[in-house]
Amino acid sequence: MLNRKLRMGMIGGGPGAFIGAVHRIAAFMDGQIELVCGAFSSDPEKSKQAGEQLNLPLTRVYGSYKEMIRAEKALPPDQQMEFVSIVTPNHVHFEPAKLALENGFHVVLDKPMTFDLKEAQLLKEIAAKSGLYFCLTHTYTGFPMVKEARQQVLSGKFGKIRKVYVEYPQGWLSSFIEADNNKQASWRTDPKQSGIAGAMGDIGTHAFNLAEYVSGLQVTKLCADINIVVDGRKLDDDGAVLLKFDNGASGVLMATQIATGEENNVKIRVYGEKGSLEWKQDDCNSLLVKWPDKPMEIFRAGAAYTSSFSRHNTRIPPGHPEGYLEAFANHYRNFALTVKTSLNGGKPTPEMLDFPGTEDGVRGMNFVEKVIASGKSDAKWIEFDK
User: Fold this and answer.
1) What is the tens place of the pLDDT at every residue in 75-121?
2) Are 47 and 21 in contact (CB under 8 A)?
């Protein structure tokens, strides 16, 4: 029986990185995972510095992801990493993920999945062929009350879903801060590192994933208005998208990084023929459920009346806030429990398997491609790939 921590390697997340530290906190939170090696920067010296700060033996700190995967593969099975967490800019997602899967390592990958749709489709095929597990860290579907929202919609209590509104407003790119060598802004606004989309790739994909996850529906076509508001910027920093879903429902998605003064108040509303729900990150432990003929209900995280999916992803009693880091950790925890259960010859539960995967990644990149195409087109409505 496997009764120990899974061994994780990390690619990226070195000096000056933001999301790498978040991934490590999330991975370590539940005691299921330990970091054993890393290639933390494309600069070998910076990678070494990061490894020293993380108290790793220098023999397990590498100068490149290729060196790391090759060296870890050569170690005895009881010593080598078992999965890799990839926290690099978008243009360094596909190759390390592909190499890891081809060498027998499970993968956790920061979103969006790849640089473009073609890479995403190929990576999905590689992952399926490998038989290994793949997790894409769309953070917001890790919140307990987002999982509760999905289960309530899937139960049919709201009837047929008619309308979905989802929004992700940020204000941190309201000025041209990439000119000041802001590392986070610089790569996200650089087409060579980010791809064809800016805001829509960075946060629009989160909103899109949240809309499909909670509604249980899939977008079939969209119509987008895409803008570059800040002078000198090369990629979109603002946009709005009309959505059509596979059951005939319509939706509206807003993602902007120039909403001055806004932080990260992700919000979703889903309207059915019998009732509706609303969730927002600013009050993430609450789920509002609204009816036409009785008072509004407020569901709270951790309560005994919530679904098994919600309770499975809640660590503490009601009233003790669990937020972004815990939601992030839920994906790592479920991924780790799935891998460990499988290694023990067991069958992971549906609650364990409830983390984003390659299908979410491909749909996210499809969304990016179609949003930008629609934004540039006079025809506007663009069909999703079948």
Assistant:
1) 999 999 999 999 999 999 999 999 999 999 999 999 999 999 999 99
2) no
As a whole number, mean pLDDT of residues 122-149 equals 97
DSSP labels, 118-182 = HHHHHHHHHHHHHT--EEE--GGGGSHHHHHHHHHHHTTTT-SEEEEEEEEE--TTSS-GGGGT-
Of 208, 228, 147, 216, the closest CA to residue 361 belongs to 208
DSSP string, 349-364: -TTTT-S--HHHHHHH
In the numeric block, the tokens 């829509």 are attached to: 200
CATH code, domain carrying 126: 3.40.50.720
Indicate the length of the chain as a whole number.
386
Residue 81's domain comprises 6-139+330-356
DSSP three-state, residue 73? helix
Residues 53, 129: one domain? yes
Residue 1 in this model has a pLDDT that exceeds 80:
no
Angle 347-351-352 from CA coordinates, rounded to 5°: 55
